[in-house]
Design brief:
The protein is mainly beta and about 250 residues long. The protein has two domains: about 90 residues, Pseudouridine synthase (2-Layer Sandwich), CATH 3.30.2350.10; about 110 residues, 2-Layer Sandwich (Pseudouridine synthase), CATH 3.30.2350. It is built from three helices and twelve strands; from the N terminus they run ββαβαββββββαβββ. The strands form two sheets. Strands 1, 2, 3, 4, 5, 8, 9, 11 and 12 form a nine-stranded mixed β-sheet that branches. A three-stranded mixed β-sheet has the order 6-7-10, with no helix packed on it. The two termini are about 30 Å apart. The relative contact order is 0.19.
């Protein structure tokens, strides 16, 4: 299902420095607010972002800093390197999937199953950017494990609180895996891989890209990166950071 042109939005990021969850001489871990870009955008008015704010907080930092990203609409844990060597180490950890990430989301409706794994291959929707779509023929492998934490009521509507653990890191992966079949799909399930499974069919509350007709009013996307586990780039010790859930 093609949702048509993506609506234009004005960038009005929240004010203030992001809360610091951890810092040492090598990296800093912060809680990114929803509505703030992770890195600068193309337009001049989109230069304000998490990286620029952390750079202002740590003026002696060198190197690219950004090791991974969160969507504009997603809140939660991000780690930024304070020197080039640390940046390389952490970036490799993300690339080789040595990190462990946990997200919390509210889904639009009550999910029947309690847990499972979603395997919906994805690629860019070349007709409706910046959307992604499920493509069972040419999509890249995209795997997410989910677990229901609670079935709740929000503003008189059914919602499901879920834990989402991505095993791959595709753009909009969690949003697409939650919303599918509310996204454009190419091919038939199982065309290439018998382990492929459908999405949840319940978009994340507040998702302006993959669900436009929700009855639940929401000031933001209800998706939060609540936990991140890495290996310290110098000591090798495994470290886990958590950020309070804002919804």
């Amino acid at each position: 299902m093609n949702l048509g042109p993506v609506p234009h939005f004005s960038y009005h990021p929240p004010l203030g420095d992001p809360p610091i969850l951890h810092q040492d001489q090598y990296f800093v871990v912060v809680d990114k607010p929803a509505g703030l870009l992770s890195v600068p955008g193309i337009a001049p008015e989109k230069q304000d972002c998490l990286r620029s704010r952390v750079q202002a907080m740590f003026p002696d930092a060198t190197g690219p800093m950004t090791c991974h990203r969160l969507d504009l609409s997603t809140s939660g844990i991000m780690i930024l390197a304070l020197d080039a060597k640390t940046h390389r180490n952490l970036s490799i950890q993300f690339e080789q999937r040595k990190t462990h990430k946990r997200y919390i989301a509210l889904l639009d409706g009550h999910l029947e199953s309690d847990e499972g794994t979603i395997n919906c291959p994805m690629r860019k929707d070349m007709d409706v950017r910046p959307l992604m779509l499920v493509d069972y023929v040419q999509g890249k492998p995209s795997v997410t494990h989910y677990k229901v934490l609670a079935r709740e009521i929000l503003d008189g509507c059914d919602v499901t609180r879920v834990e989402l653990i991505p095993h791959t890191g595709r753009t909009h992966q969690l949003r697409v895996h939650a919303a599918h079949p509310h996204v454009t799909t190419v091919g038939e399930m199982g065309t290439l891989d018998p382990t492929e499974t459908p999405g949840l069919g319940l978009p994340i509350v507040g998702d302006e890209l993959y669900r436009k007709d929700s009855a639940i009013p929401s000031p933001r996307l209800m998706l939060h990166a609540s936990m991140l586990t890495i290996y310290h780039p110098i000591t090798g010790k495994q470290l886990t950071f958590t950020a309070p859930i804002p919804f």
